[in-house]
């Protein structure tokens, strides 16, 4: 079973959100207004699931700042503050550092290490990290050393973040797309394969046994229910256009 989550740190999309880093074909159609509404609904669902939602103020200097998951990796009473792989995002982590510093031991990733939380899967006994476009081997080593936990690697420098391709559900089960489904590190897991043309659905967020899934993925939704998972669907269109997803929008602990 996963550890019970009690708190979620979030950050509202900024007025500059449409300037996010993205190669999505619909990037130019991003609606800041709609993104804020979708984020508000996201926060309301987290509250309904029993979490205390803590909101950091938005900062227009950082269009991607709502993707707060990337700024830190937390395990028990320790947090590694990210040194972002995307240079334009460096600085987003400062407000997160200042908040977490009040309640846990924190360390800042040192150069030349880079790591972003979107690459890190939290499992009951160890972590899995991507070595990707945003996270390098030096960053993963610092993660393991500081959090004092084993970190297994899935290396694919063609991907932005590992959790765009696999997320942990519960009870030894992952949802995964074809990009990494055959990786040997995932060999011991029960795998739910995201349906063809529903690859975005591989990024789910499980909160205290409830799986949040982006809307518009009916085949994957059915697979989750067939495997005994309770599901809430959420509209994520504006975040998808900015290459973000459900896990990206909160830092859970």
Tell me briefly what this model is.
The protein is of the alpha/beta class and 253 residues long.
**Can you write the helix and strand succession as a string?**
EHEEEHEEEHEEEEEEHEHE
How would you sum up the major sheet?
3 strands, mixed
CATH topology: L-arginine/glycine Amidinotransferase, Chain A
Structural domain count: 1
Rg from Cα: 17 Å
Shape: globular
Summarize the amount of helix as a percent range. 10-25%
Q: Tally the beta strands.
A: 15
Strand order of the largest sheet: 2-1-15
Strand fraction equals 15-25%
Q: What's the rounded overall pLDDT mean?
A: 96
Distance between the termini: 15 Å
Task: Characterise this structure.
With 253 residues, the protein is an alpha/beta fold. The protein has a single domain, classed as L-arginine/glycine Amidinotransferase, Chain A, CATH 3.75.10. The protein has 5 helices and 15 strands. The strands form 5 sheets. The chain has a 3-stranded mixed beta sheet with strand order 2-1-15, covered by helices on one side. A hairpin with a 2-residue loop joins strand 9 and strand 10. The radius of gyration is 17 Å and the shape is globular. The model has no long low-confidence stretch (mean pLDDT 96).
What is the fold's blueprint, element by element?
Layout: E1 7-11, H1 32-48, E2 52-56, E3 72-75, E4 78-81, H2 93-100, E5 105-108, E6 120-122, E7 127-131, H3 137-147, E8 151-155, E9 166-170, E10 173-176, E11 190-193, E12 205-207, E13 210-214, H4 218-226, E14 230-234, H5 237-241, E15 251-252
Parallel strand pairs: 1-2, 4-5, 7-8, 10-11, 13-14
Antiparallel strand pairs: 1-15, 3-4, 6-7, 9-10, 12-13
């Amino acid at each position: 079973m996963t550890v019970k989550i009690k708190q979620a740190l979030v950050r509202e999309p900024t007025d500059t959100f449409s300037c996010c880093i993205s190669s999505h074909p619909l990037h130019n159609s991003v609606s800041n207004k709609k993104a804020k509404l979708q984020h508000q609904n996201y926060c309301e669902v987290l509250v309904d699931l029993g979490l205390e939602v803590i909101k950091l103020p938005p900062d227009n200097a950082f269009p991607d700042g709502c993707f707060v998951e990337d700024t830190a990796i937390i395990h028990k009473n320790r947090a590694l503050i990210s040194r972002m792989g995307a240079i334009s995002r460096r600085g987003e982590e400062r407000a997160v550092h200042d908040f977490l510093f009040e309640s846990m031991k924190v360390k800042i990733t040192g150069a030349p290490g880079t790591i972003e939380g979107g690459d890190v899967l939290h499992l009951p006994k160890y972590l899995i990290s991507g070595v990707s476009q945003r996270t390098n081997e030096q960053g993963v080593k610092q993660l393991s050393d500081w959090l004092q936990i084993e970190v297994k690697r899935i290396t694919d420098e063609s991907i932005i973040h590992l959790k765009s391709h696999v997320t942990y559900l519960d009870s030894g089960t992952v949802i995964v797309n074809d990009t990494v489904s055959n990786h040997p590190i995932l060999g011991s897991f029960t795998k739910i394969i995201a349906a063809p043309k529903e690859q975005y659905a591989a990024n789910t967020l499980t909160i205290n046994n409830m799986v949040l899934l982006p809307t518009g993925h009916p085949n994957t939704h059915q697979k989750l229910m067939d495997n005994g998972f309770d599901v809430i669907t959420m509209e994520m269109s504006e975040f998808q256009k900015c290459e973000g997803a459900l896990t990206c929008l909160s830092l859970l602990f």
